[in-house]
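Late entry, evening session. Most of the bench is empty. Finally got around to the prediction I had been postponing all week. Sequence below, unchanged from the version circulated by S.P.
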Amino acid sequence: MVADPQRGQLANASNMLDVTWEAPDGAITPLDGYLDPYFQEIYLEAESIPIFSKLARHVSADALENYVTQLEKEVRKYLTKDLNYGKVAKRMYNIFRLTGRYQEAAYLRELFDEPTTMLYQVWSLIRTIDDISKPGTEITVEQTIAQTDQLILSVIKALEGDQEAEIVRLLLRLRTALTQQEGGQELNASAEAARAEVINLVNNFFFERLTAVPEIKDYMDGITKE
């Protein structure tokens, strides 16, 4: 997340993929001399599968195994240290898809369809809130409040019923707490408490759906015991 002073808003920043060249015979050459196994970059974009399949034929033989191992380490981290069941779900989707467990992968894929994907966007707001408490940050409290307002409106449009009411209630409480926050300083008690409530709500949403499938629950239990 970076501040865009010209537009007066925040923007998401992501990794840039390496540039490659495809020769007439189908050979793919990366301009920096190394073809990274970007298996995760297409996990929610079905239209990217053809180019992914083409690139996958040119990576080293052990790249897939190494990538899955790295994902499993991240799953363990988000299950035991930095608790984040949304990130657990995304990484397990890749693991299951790449290791042939397609039924579990399909179930996880559906978790990120509208409207429930809206809840995952809450993490972007949480990262922004964490950033404004860091000394020297370029992100202002006003920009963070504006982002909160946009998320509240998006939730109202996408969700309905008790789920909408609860997340909007907590986001409004968080917004109120942010109006009392000073940029570059530690979060005040109200903002910290509201932040924790929002995180807990989103984590509970994904936890309930992940543990509802016995195979996925068993996998998670096995990861945490290793």
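Two things to note before I forget:
The first strand starts at residue 2 and ends at 4.
The domain at 117-210 is CATH 1.20.1270 (Substrate Binding Domain Of Dnak; Chain:A; Domain 2).
Will write this up properly tomorrow.
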